[in-house]
Design brief:
Strand order of the largest sheet: 5-4-6-7-1-8-14-13-9-10
CATH topology of the largest domain: Peroxisomal Thiolase, Chain A, domain 1
CATH superfamily of the largest domain: Thiolase/Chalcone synthase
Order of helices and strands: EHEEHHEHHHEHEHEHEHEHEHHEEEE
Number of domains: 2
Helix content: 25-40%
CATH class of the largest domain: Alpha Beta
Number of strands: 14
């Protein structure tokens, strides 16, 4: 049963999970953010000695068998393992049990930018060196992007709407926004949503480095990712997954769920300009912010915090700054803004997931994480980016921005929960 626009459901966040370069649980991730912990270091997942960029934000100490059987884990690429693990964390955090009575009302939307690239690379080697007959029969189902959502459903028994967004670095945020719409309009009572990525691989680094997108500050990984700083030289790749459990408000209240906050707005646009570069001035990003605020019914003066896309690339950071100024006007100078990518690196399609988690935790705890390594601000980036130290700050409304190759722009709006009436 769906609802009319006049009877849209309220949607709340009741559980979260996170696997990141600075922590493998929600609490460890949040503690790492507040501490300004650097998750960037030399690559250990492959021999990067021939690469121009040899640093990344890796998920360390992750054992998939903590979340699934060994046989199942061997049939999943790392990006899908991350999604399953973070989804199970979110369900446990929400104390939400899927059973025969509610399975058809629980859905999944998990985004990824690339999917199972490591499996593809490995199987190409098998094909070239040992022949086509030796390729794994699991290659395709391990590689394809939708398997993060599909395998998570198999693991937890969710039989409701199931989808995968593949909009580059906006994929995780698109997934959350699309899941929000499904609950809001009555297609599901609860949705598991977010992003996942595991693209720290030789081919991925070769491609991004050839595009001159990656930082080459290999001798100083602690300071390599420096959003909004004039000395930034490119983004640093990260990996991991961030997952939210969204619930229809009445359903959450009926089971006595804890509520972190409410998701209230979703805006998306396209630059229609260039395959990798944002449109100068950030017109597309600005429209996404404005559409999300309109959807949420909030004004610029209501916005307390923005988790910026903030990639540490010359083009993004100044363009996003301009977009925020256009969307919020003079209020832009009063809003606390940070790029948590400064600590985690850029998770590509997974970034929107962990950054939505950060925005939601900021609301829940009235504390905002910093932008580390902001030592010499770019004159074109002149807003309050919370340099180097977290800050106590009342957060009633938070935005989370994600922008992807191809011109995809997404903004999500979260709000502190207030009971009806």
């Amino acid at each position: 049963m769906t609802t009319s626009d006049s009877a849209l459901k309220r949607v709340v966040v009741t559980g979260m999970g996170a696997l990141t370069p600075i922590g493998n649980t929600l609490s460890d991730y949040w503690d790492g953010l507040l501490a300004g912990r650097n998750g960037i270091g030399p690559i250990t997942l492959f021999d990067a000695s021939r690469h121009d960029s040899r640093i990344a934000g890796e998920v360390r100490g992750f054992d998939p068998q903590d979340y699934m059987e060994r046989k199942e884990a061997k049939r999943m690429d790392r990006f899908a393992q991350f999604a399953v693990a973070a989804s199970k964390q979110a369900l446990a955090d929400a104390d939400f049990v899927i059973n025969d009575l509610n399975a058809e009302q629980v859905g999944i939307v998990i985004g990824t930018g690339i999917g199972g690239l490591k499996v593809m690379e490995d199987q190409q080697e098998v094909y070239l060196n040992r022949g086509p007959s030796r390729c794994s029969p699991f290659m395709v189902p391990m590689m394809i992007a939708n398997m993060a959502a599909g395998l998570t459903a198999i693991q937890i028994g969710a039989k409701g709407p199931n989808n995968c967004t593949v909009t580059a670095c906006a994929a995780g945020s698109n997934a959350i926004g699309d899941a929000f719409r499904l609950v809001q309009r009555g297609y599901a009572q609860a949705m598991i949503c977010g992003g996942t990525e595991a693209a720290v691989t030789p081919l991925s680094f070769a491609g991004f480095a050839s595009a001159r997108a990656l930082s080459t500050r290999n001798d100083d990984p602690d300071h390599a990712c420096r959003p909004f700083d004039r000395d930034r030289d490119g983004f640093v790749m990260g990996e991991g997954s961030g997952i939210l459990l969204l619930e229809e408000l009445e359903h959450a209240l009926s089971r006595g769920a804890k509520i972190y906050g409410e998701i209230v707005g979703y805006g998306m646009t396209c630059d229609a300009y260039h395959i990798t570069s944002p449109v100068p001035g950030g017109e597309g990003a600005s429209r996404a912010i404005q559409l999300a605020m309109k959807d949420a019914g909030v004004k610029p003066a209501d916005v307390s915090y923005i988790n910026a896309h903030g990639t540490s690339t010359p083009a993004n950071d100044s363009t996003e700054t301009a977009a925020i100024k256009t969307a919020l006007g003079d209020q832009a100078y009063n809003v606390a803004i940070s790029s948590t990518k400064s600590m985690t690196g850029h998770l590509l399609g997974g970034s929107g997931g962990i950054e939505a988690v950060a925005a939601m935790m900021a609301i829940a705890h009235d504390r905002v994480p910093p932008t580390i390594n902001l030592e010499n601000p770019d004159p074109a980036c002149d807003l309050d980016y919370i340099p180097n130290q977290s800050r106590e700050h009342t957060v009633d409304v938070a935005l989370s921005n994600s922008f992807g190759f191809g011109g995809h722009n997404v903004t999500l709006v979260f709000r502190k929960f207030q009971s009806a009436g």
